[in-house]
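Appendix B, Record 12. Input sequence as logged:
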Amino acid sequence: MTSMMDDFAVRKLDLGRVASQTFTVLGRQPVTIFGLALLLGGLPAALNLYYASQALVGGGAAALTQFTTFGYWLRIIAQLFVGAFLGASLFYVAFSEVSGRKATFGEIVTNGAKLFLPLFAVNFMSAVAIVIGCFLLIVPGLMLAVAWCVAGPALVAERTGITQVFGRSAELTRGNRWRIFGLVLIFLVVVAIIQGVVSAIFGVAGGVGALLSPARLIISGVIAIFTTAITYTGLAVLYANLRELKEGLGHESLAAVFD
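Logged structural output:
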C-alpha cells in the first residue's frame, strides 16, 4: 500500500489534461458558470474601471479622495463577501461536473451560502500572507501563492477547517509547484496581453474619455467573465487532478462534496 501511494506521489501533473478538462467542464455548464462569472468578475470589473476612470478624469486629487469615502470601502467589502459566495458556488458547480453529476440551482445557492464565510476567511488570510511575502521579497509571496492555490477548492470539497486547508493545499501541490507556476504564468501573460491590447486601442483612439465608453466597459467585463470562469473552474479541476495524483482517488470520489 505504501509503495502504491509513493507511486502516486511521484507522478507529475499533466497540464494538458488539466486544461482539457477545464474547457470540457466549461462546455458542459456554460450558462451556470458564465452566469456566476458575470456576477463575480464581469460586473465588478466594469464598475471598478468606471469609478477609476471617473477619478482620473477628476484629476489626481479626486483619484486619492475616493479611497477616503465610505461608499468606496462599502463597495469593496460588498464585492469581497459577494465574491466569496459566488466563488464557493463556482467551485461547487465545477466539482459537480468533474464528478459526473449535475448540481441543481438550489444546491448551488445552498452551498454558496454555507461556505462563503469560510472561503472569505481563506481568501483574506492567503491574500494578506501573499502580499506580505511579496512586499518582503517577491519569491516567498509567489511560493505561497502556488502552494496555497487549491486551498479554496479543498475547503469546498473537504469541508475542513479554515487553517487546515492551507496545509492540505501545500501537501497536494508539493512536487508539482513549478508546473503549476508555469501554467498560471502562461494564463496571466495571455490575459495581460489581451488587456494591454484593448487598453492601447481605446487609449490611443480617444484618451481618457475612451476609457469611459460603453464599449470599453463591456469589453473589460467580458474579459473578466472569461478570466473568472477559467480561473475558478481550472482551480477545481487542478485540485481534482492533484488529489488523484497524490492519493489515487478518481474524480468520482468528489461525490462526497454532495453529501
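The radius of gyration is 20 Å.
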